Structure formats: structure tokens, C-alpha cells
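Reopening this ticket.

The earlier resolution said the output was attached, but the attachment link was broken on my side. Pasting everything inline this time so it's all in one place.
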Amino acid sequence: MTITIHYAFLPHTDADAALAFYRDTLGFELRNDVGYNNMRWLTVGPPNQPETGIVLHPPAADPGITDDERRTILELIAKGSYGALTLATDDLDGLFDRLQASGADVAQEPTEQPYGVRDCAFRDPTGNLIRINERR
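Inline output:
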């Protein structure tokens, strides 16, 4: 039996800003752009990994969520404590420089961690924490 990661989900609060970050800055390809009732779901992913995607979704779109729950979710997103994703690259410094030059929100410069990885971190336009590990 083989199990793979097919989709991961992150919220977005601005579809165009999310698309600019993931497609134009990170270099992911746009695979799907679905609109419904003034909301947009975007699926992006690395061009060399067509089987793995990130679905950027409108937060709290579930009709079963109460107004109080919706407010809490939006507050957590605004604080940057709702969604996170870890990526990996063989050129951490080059990717860091590209993200920093784009104006992306730097959360941590490239650092050798005591647990054995070298990584950096950014926040996407919504506030999701994006950690990037150096592939060794």
C-alpha cells in the first residue's frame, strides 16, 4: 500500500494576493481556480509534483460554522496562528533572497536549528506561517 499527500489546505483572505505569492513568488503553478458566491478556491502546487497540491480556501466557508466560530477563526488567521506549511528546497539562501526581495513578510532568516535542520520562515499574505527547510 502506498500513501501520499494529495492536498493540504490553507485559508486565504485575498485570493489575488495568495495567487501572487504562491504562483508568482514561490513559482507554483495554478491548477484550479473555482469561484462560488463571491468566494474563490485556488489549487496550486510545485510544477514537478503534479500529484501534490495546496488548496487555498476562503476561511470559515462551512455553512455549519456559527458566527462566533467564524469570528474566532478570522482572529486566529489575523494573528498568524491558524495555518502553517513546511516546504523544502535545495537552495534555501536563493529562495530566501527571492522571497525577501518580493516584499514577503519575513518571520525568520535562514537559521541552523538545534534539531538538525536549516530553515527560514515567512508569512503568506493571509498570515499563514510558511517554513522552508533546506534539503540536505
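Reporter confirms the inline version is readable. Helices lie at 15-25, 67-79, 92-101. The first helix runs from residue 15 to 25.
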